Amino acid sequence: MRASPMKKLKNEKELVKKAIQIGVAYAEKRGVVEFEATDSASEKLLYIYRLLVHDKIIQPLPEDQVSQPTIQHKLAIWASKQP
After folding, report:
1. Does residue 4 sit within a domain?
2. How far apart are CA 34 and CA 29, in angstroms?
3. What total number of domains does the chain contain?
4. Which of 40, 53, 64, 75 is most buried (CB neighbours < 10 A)?
5. pLDDT band per the 50, 70, 90 thresholds, residue 15
6. Which Pfam families does the UniProt entry name for this protein (predicted)?
7. SS (H, E, C) 5-70
8. pLDDT (0 to 100) of residue 1
9. Which pLDDT score is estimated for 5?
10. For 44, left (φ over 0), alpha (ψ -120 to 50), or beta?
11. Is the separation of the CB atoms in 58 and 52 below 8 Å?
């Protein structure tokens, strides 16, 4: 079975930025990580994704589908639902 291609969100780029902002704040508030200025966006996104899955806030992707584009998309959707 092949997954259908992801439909890009209209403002996905902005939502990915929002996801990083909210996700970093969430992770640091929980006291599980302190991000460095040198951490790349992709490192932050992967960490935030894994943390949100661990905390059962989002559904995990099938492991064979975990990639930078799918994580960005998943977190953009999550960010779009945040106040």
Report:
1. no
2. 9
3. 1
4. 75
5. very high
6. DUF5062 (PF16691)
7. CCCCCCCHHHHHHHHHHHHHHHHHHHCCCCCCCCCCHHHHHHHHHHHHHHCCCCCCCCHHHCCHHH
8. 42
9. 59
10. alpha
11. yes
Q: What distance lies between CA 47 and its chain's CA centroid?
A: 8
Q: Residue 54 belongs to what domain range?
A: 12-30+39-80
Q: Residue 51 and residue 34: Cα distance in Å, rounded?
A: 13
How far is Cα 57 from Cα 53, in angstroms, rounded to an integer? 6
Supply the CATH number for residue 17's domain.
1.20.120.1930
Give the model's confidence band at 2: pLDDT under 50 very low, under 70 low, under 90 confident, else very high.
very low
Nearest by Cα to 49 from 9, 29, 78? 78
Per-residue pLDDT of 21-79, as tens digits, reads 999 999 999 999 999 999 999 999 999 999 999 999 999 999 999 999 999 999 999 99
